[in-house]
């Protein structure tokens, strides 16, 4: 791992931990600038290895250590990849240990750029990126969002450590990527249907199952585009996430993402919205009658995509039911034009934790398709996600 001199260098401490947890040996090179942000002591303690700092180090270079370093690794990750490191490699500079290792390596290189949005969008950085990609360098991120500098936002945030781990694993284990090249459009979370500017109709969906499935599909190599309703959990690693509020926004975003190889609809979309959203906050006034809400039906996203002119080859819907779980799912399979319905019993009597399936961490699902019904054992939502991702991979590569 080559650590460049940017504020995001602190995130590499977590990245080293995440990689070591997964059994990888991590050997670090720090640029001089990187040492202004984090210390070789922390990097050495977390990587449990010597940290390499200097091209002209007499102890490390008695056997031309920079060439050895560049060859012993299976992969070189540059995180954060500064504008400067990108420029150096794009132009063949080798005047410090980091750039010399990058120039001398015969192994794949993955860069996780991190910089101010203006530096990232500068024509020089854009040119360097095109050159590096043409030279076979792979990139993860950067993402959009708040910068460490106050008041700055835009594209330039370093990818999160788990996203970088997913990109590393994809490069190191291409055979575990049965979904490489497959585009999947998904939904997750609840929708919020406004009553007035401060109130809304919602449901208890947390997005945990949908987000876990998105991450599990991305880990199998899929290009996952996730349309998420309002949730409080982080965007899943390695997934392109779009944030929406209402059912209508969710449908428009999904349709804009077609065509796709698969559409997987996990979101608990509100069936109804008010037909008269107030533009001002509704006031409680003495003597005034209690307002009544009049509801209209929302678009049915699963049914719309199940019968769409650009219908993905595989359409999977999730059904939250409190009674007659399997019979209801069988009905939905046909009505909604889906290939598979993943039915879960969200009644509080489902025996899963005090809050049940919605919002909880465990789930029990039944897969209903034209082939019949298959019930998976109760498990954590992450484990259910892995099992479902494997089944979806099977269906998409059949
Ligand atoms: C406080 C501070 C933050 C910086 N953050 C970044 C950054 O996020 N990305 C970047 O490309 N350069 C950043 N720089 C500039 C680099 O540190 C500078 O270009 C340095 O020469 C990079 O050296 P290196 O590429 O050898 O690590 C920052 C500089 C300072 C003083």
TrEMBL record:
It catalyses: N-[(R)-4-phosphopantothenoyl]-L-cysteine + H(+) = (R)-4'-phosphopantetheine + CO2; (R)-4'-phosphopantothenate + L-cysteine + CTP = N-[(R)-4-phosphopantothenoyl]-L-cysteine + CMP + diphosphate + H(+). Signal peptide: none annotated. Its EC number is 4.1.1.36, 6.3.2.5. GO terms for biological process: coenzyme A biosynthetic process; pantothenate catabolic process. It holds the Pfam family DFP. In the C-terminal section; belongs to the PPC synthetase family. SUPFAM superfamilies: CoaB-like, Homo-oligomeric flavin-containing Cys decarboxylases, HFCD. HAMAP family: CoaBC. This is Coenzyme A biosynthesis bifunctional protein CoaBC. It comes from Nitratireductor aestuarii. The keyword Cell inner membrane does not apply. Pathway: Cofactor biosynthesis; coenzyme A biosynthesis; CoA from (R)-pantothenate: step 2/5; Cofactor biosynthesis; coenzyme A biosynthesis; CoA from (R)-pantothenate: step 3/5. Residues 2-169 form the Flavoprotein domain. Binds 1 FMN per subunit. Residues 179-394 form the DNA/pantothenate metabolism flavoprotein C-terminal domain.
